[in-house]
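Subject: design request, 372 residues
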């Protein structure tokens, strides 16, 4: 088993653009024109090819690109006991586009046994070698809590869980089960993807909550609580990192704002090993909030965007790394794109060739800055 640990000096978040053949196969399956076992075979083939490309690009982490998922988050939630797939009449409203309409709805008490992602991880793990290690990405516990408490779901969830503390405890317990099952399958690198902190920092979100009686301490406190409860008792050699996302759907975004409002919670007190942070444009604010990162955490700077195909200027990115190093020592800093290339299967608006050019850029810059 590979003993490599994430993050790496040049890294990535995890999702990749879906090949046309995979998109067609998934659509054929949804239409009833392709059996499940044949879809799985095509997924296996495309993931195998993706891992080959990841290794050829010189990266030390491999993922399945989230090729078996429609969404970065909902497919995981649907794999938990007590949660079902529901289609609404609307999606989330990003800046410039409405998302597709899926959600995860509570149907009973939540638990985490027999999660299908464990089998999915095992397929990727077989490709580990002395230079690469498999990483499993999953939505953060806070993201599941947020989805179950969104406006369309909250009354249904509260009918099953009138006590919110019980809901938080059950979500955390379900995650602990999945984490342990992944660990038993040989997984040592897990990434929580978490948009809840993106909502926390967004002024428009708080304007929409005005008059609800919810305070920053209430909202951020429950997200921090459920994430840390899920991590209680994890094995010492299980790395869990957090990627804080501001929304990434077909190259559109959901949230804006500096990290200041969230820093005292997730930067200072979340019990994860590293933070993958979006810093690809002015929506993320300055690096000053990095002064709140606890000294045990590493920081992966997402300075290269996955939303646009144009390549960033290498010297400008290096200057920004040096700016961040005023707040975090350079040896605790790392580099990646700001998010995945296809948080949902629709993907961002760039080509596969442009996707790999972005990753080649990240690697070149890293080698210039750190020599590795």
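Subject: RE: design request

Done. Sequence follows.
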């Amino acid at each position: 088993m590979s003993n490599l640990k994430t993050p790496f000096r040049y890294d990535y978040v995890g999702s990749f653009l879906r090949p046309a053949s995979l998109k067609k196969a998934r659509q054929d399956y949804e239409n009833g024109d392709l059996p499940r076992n044949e879809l799985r075979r095509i997924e296996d083939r495309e993931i195998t090819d993706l891992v080959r490309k990841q290794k050829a690009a010189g990266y030390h982490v491999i993922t399945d690109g989230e090729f078996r998922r429609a969404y970065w988050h909902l497919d995981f939630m649907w794999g938990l006991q007590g949660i079902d797939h529901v289609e609404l009449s609307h999606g989330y409203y990003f800046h410039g586009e409405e998302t597709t309409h899926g959600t995860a709805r509570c149907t009973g008490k939540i638990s985490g046994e027999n999660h299908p992602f464990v089998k999915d991880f095992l397929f990727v793990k077989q490709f580990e070698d002395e230079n690469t290690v498999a990483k499993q990405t999953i939505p953060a516990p806070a993201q599941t809590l947020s989805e179950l408490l969104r406006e369309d779901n909250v009354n249904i969830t509260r009918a099953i869980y009138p006590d919110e503390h019980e809901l938080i405890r059950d979500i955390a317990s379900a995650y602990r089960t999945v984490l342990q099952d992944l660990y038993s399958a040989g997984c040592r690198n897990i990434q929580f993807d978490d948009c809840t902190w993106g909502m926390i920092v967004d002024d428009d979100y708080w304007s929409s909550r005005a008059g609800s009686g919810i305070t920053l301490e209430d909202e951020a406190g429950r997200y921090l609580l459920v994430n840390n409860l899920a991590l209680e008792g994890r094995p010492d050699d299980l790395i869990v990192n957090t990627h804080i996302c501001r929304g990434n759907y077909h190259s559109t975004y959901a949230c804006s704002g500096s990290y200041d409002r969230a820093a005292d919670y997730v930067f200072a007190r979340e019990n994860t090993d590293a933070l993958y942070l979006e810093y690809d444009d002015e929506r993320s604010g300055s690096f000053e909030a990095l002064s709140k990162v606890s000294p045990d955490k590493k920081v992966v700077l997402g300075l290269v965007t996955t939303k646009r195909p144009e390549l960033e200027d290498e010297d400008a990115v290096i200057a920004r790394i040096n700016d961040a190093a005023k707040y975090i020592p350079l040896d605790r800093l790392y580099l990646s794109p700001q998010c995945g290339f296809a948080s949902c299967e629709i993907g961002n608006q760039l080509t596969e060739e442009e996707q790999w050019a972005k990753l080649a850029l990240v690697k070149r810059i890293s080698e210039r800055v750190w020599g590795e």
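The mean pLDDT is 93.
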